[in-house]
What does this fold into?
Amino acid sequence: MISTKELTRVFRTDEVETTALDNVTFKVKQGEFVAVMGPSGCGKSTLLNILGLLDNPTKGQYFLDGENVSMLKESQRTAMRRGNIGFVFQSFNLIDDMTVFENVELPLVYMGIRESERKKRVFAILERMKVGHRRRHFMQQLSGGQQQRVAIARAVVTTPKLILADEPTGNLDSKNGIEVMNLLLELNKEGTTIIMVTHSERDSGYANRIINLFDGRIKSEEQYPVLNYS
Amino acid sequence: MIKYFLKIVIRFLWRNKTYSGLNYACLTFGFTCAIIASLYILNIFDYDKFHSNYRRLYSVEAYVTFFNGDRFPKEYLTASLPDMLKKHAPEIEEVVRMTERSYSFVHEDKTYAGNGFYADNNFFDVFSFPVIYGNSRDILNDINSIVISESMALNFFENADCTGKILVMNNGSNREAYRISGIFRQVPNQSLLQFDFIIPFSKFLTGNAWALETGATANTTWIMLRSAADWRQVNEKIKNLIVNHESSLNHELFLFPLKDKILYRYADGKRVWSGMQNVMIVGAVGLVILLIACFNFINLAIAINIRRYREAGIKKVVGSKKAFIISQFLSETSIIILAGMVSAIVLVALLPDNFNLILNSNIHLGALSSKIIAYFLMIALFTGLISGLIPALYLASSNPISVLKGKIITSHSYSIFRQSLIVFQFTIPIALIICMLIIKTQDRYMREYDAGVDKDKVIVVENISEIPDKTGRLKADLLAIPGIEGVSYTNCIPTRNARVSNEVSWEGKDASEKLHFWCINSDFDYNQVVKIKMMEGRFFSPSFSSDSDCYVINDVAARVMRYTNPVGASLTLEGNKGTIIGIIKDFHAIDLAGPLVPVIMRIKSEERPIVMIRFSSGNYASVKEQILKVLKHHNPDASFEPALFQDLPANSNLSLPSNLIGLSFIIGLLLGCMGLFGLASFSCERRIKEIGIRKTNGATTLSIMGLLLTSYLKWLVIAFILALPVAFTLGQYFLSRFFFHAAMPVWAFLAGPAFAILVAILTVSFRTWGVASRNPVEALRYE
It folds into this structure.
């Protein structure tokens, strides 16, 4: 599903040139759950941004479903992202001025899906994430765990092929963290490909493959059996 | 999709009530002021357009050169002009002579006092005042006929159709009967000519044969040009008509279009503003308030929307196109603009009738033309685009990665653009308050100027000619009122003009000199009421029987006549030779906008339509009541309006412009402060963590306030510096219009801005105090 070839990302300022990713080549198959690990500044988030079509590599190639998407224009990346990739962030990134329902509904709106269909899908996913009863609430009225469930609901409401999660449990206590990871695992079992950046050894245990990055390069790759914490 | 967007937009506005409320209030205020200003201007430009021959109507006037070389327009000319005009300019289709009078009329037990004209019988053919009863072609043919207004008719009779009925006019000692030959519909407010009755001009001529003399100041003359005629050619043809007829008269005729009559007057051969002054002031004030309101809106909208980088970033991540984000921001600003516009229209529609009375206008929404509506839509569109588009474009093109990483946009938040708007917003009110203070200073200077009259103790009654006091009985009765110490009949209220004559000659006068003198007809008591300063000689006295053939002149007249020893010299005024017995000084016949003019005073028992009464004790109300009682006793049918001299509307009326500018200053400052308050709120919120850290490290509340206020003070000081030259230039131009004017008030350049800046700083302090005095722990936890 995902294939990168010598992916490089260099950040330049007037004085400094920083190579965040340096010739990264790897593949991810459909249905895999991949954890990307490594120390701070090793390029994990940069890799995730490029995989999520939020950024373009400076050099190298990125194939998504066989299509070279490494040098798309922003509008093309947006179109490609819409409905195909879901994001889960450490800081949830939900819109404060919108209710739970509206936050989850947002990607469907941009996909141009009819209102009745949107309602049906949002209700269903909120029930599944066990936050259906909170659908009229605003973000300030929810706990961190509930907010992350809403964020996951928003990521999966379009039934994307790929979910990219950036430290999804970083802002959660252990109980809520486990619940979130179980949700991701459940989605993965249903066939959704998940790539997750994490510092947490425990969370990486949910993945069936771990890519270790160091100074922008793949240091090692490990295949692990899936653990079930539930 | 639209429904979804609307819901989100309305939610955002509701959840940000301070922002939405401030912006809505500012815009509504701005739009309301701008709509009122537009309607007021339209109202003035629409004057007289109801005349079907509107563009073909001209007033015939003359430039007259005065003693100091100034040229002034003269409207009242000889009644013999029509023949001359028609003979030399065949382009003229019709000529109408008119002279204005105020009379009271009686029918049975009812009276009516009104203004009207003696006018030629083609008056209703030339001007389009609809005649509702009677035939407009012949209603002024009978010398004893009168055409009255519908309301005047209904005052006397139950039915407006009262043609054939008789009205009696009180004309001094004469009571003249007139047969009503026609009724015209009430004269519209937007008419330059305002009148209640028309009497045939031939009637005026029967008692005033002098009006036909070439140099007479008898009546106004209106002409209607033929359709294809060029008024410039006619101007050339009529220019020297009077001079050619009588070379000693320095009249240069010209045509003044009816359409400009309300806007301009001619002075010194130039076209200067008359009503146009109000148009410009109201227009400028309306535009400035609208601009301040729009800039306020733009500033607040950018300030709040720039903070929404996170929301925009998230939307982009989940698949929003740029167009969606842009349309969302535009929708939000459009909704506020639309609400402001609709509210302003409703407010204007609900304007109380008093408002029109104050502005002497006829403002109503129906007058809004499609062109003006289009202008407003353009302004609204411009405001919406700038305020919505700038942040929208910026946010829509921002990198979602930086946004998601929590990088706050600090490097570029259009701060220079926004600060410029704030500077502009405060430059205007600061300049306005300085200008207002300059006008007020001149106003006070004029009010307090010693024009030779104790304004607090002089009562003026006009139209007193309805009681011809041949026996002196009325004067005696007025003097018998306790507290009254002087009564004088005259044709001149000081500073309010007098009759001008050029039929003046003196020893050694150059025959080619064509000079005008201000002629005051009065009695022996004028100097008792008007405290005249004698420079040489004496004032008229009943002890000298020959004084009724003598003259008192002012120092300017003496200079013009080049008399070194004027007292005892001879002078001839309008054919009456007499001796100069006294010289007065510092007497202002015209207001302070003009110079001291040459004045000749004489004792004359006719043409003194005004009585001036000096009282020393008793309050004005009770003295006025007793005066009215005496006047009514002498003429029960006439109506009189005694007024304090100081209450008479000044010719150079400075109250309206200064009040308008004052009002716009208040509105401008209010709008500016509202905007500043909003910006201070955003700024405080943004710096809440910084404030918490500073306080944790020992900063006091005052030092934090000082820190926050410094940035605003900087903008205000820049606004102050920019406003100074603007206000100085405008103030200097304004003062130069007055021959006698106050010195440029330096204090206004300090006090005005200090007040404006103080109000602005207090506004900001109100907000910053709340943040600066907060517990730092709370601030840090909040962050």
